[in-house]
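Final report, Chapter 2: Outcomes

The project's central promise was a pipeline that accepts a single protein chain and returns its three-dimensional structure in a standardized token representation, suitable for archiving and comparison. That pipeline is now operational. To close this chapter, we reproduce one record exactly as it appears in the project archive, with the input sequence first and the structure output second.
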Amino acid sequence: MNNHAITIVSGLPRSGTSMMMKMLAAGGLEPLTDNLRAADEDNPKGYFELERVKQIETDKAWLEDAKGRVVKLISALLKHLPPAYNYKVIFMRRAMPEILASQRQMLVRRGEPADAVTDDKMSAMFDKHLTQVESWLAAQPNIETIFVSYNQVINDPRAHAERINLFLGGSLDVDEMAGVVDRALYRQQH
């Protein structure tokens, strides 16, 4: 592990970022979290979030504490990462119909309108966003990125744990990482 690099788990909401955070924590990489957002029906194993990351435009002080650790940052906020640090980004991908179904289910559970935007329109917006983010990531000299499919991790956790371990320097416990993948939580299958 490069103790000076900051590991970032990113992706669209509902793309498997919490699962990846749990895998990395189980493997021995310390997460930077505040435990303010408790586990719930949508993420029964927890969210692994740090509330301060949402203010990254104006508050970057927490990044110093993130060195040698892993923190979750949604894809829309990646562009605010300052160039003063080196990052290893694990970017989660998931089948778009599953992301949309999972988001819709979460809104229903919260009693919020789940049909404010059509799936077609939301999918087009997300696709455009992902294209922009991936292009931006590729242009950053201080960011290394690995793209990980949630769907593939569910089907073969060990192979992807090994791949992620190599990306992060080879010091994580692959068996522990693979062991936390819970297929029972794969509820929005396409």
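Archive annotation: The beta strands are 6-11, 70-72, 87-93, 143-149.
This record, like all others produced under the grant, will remain available to the consortium after the project formally closes.
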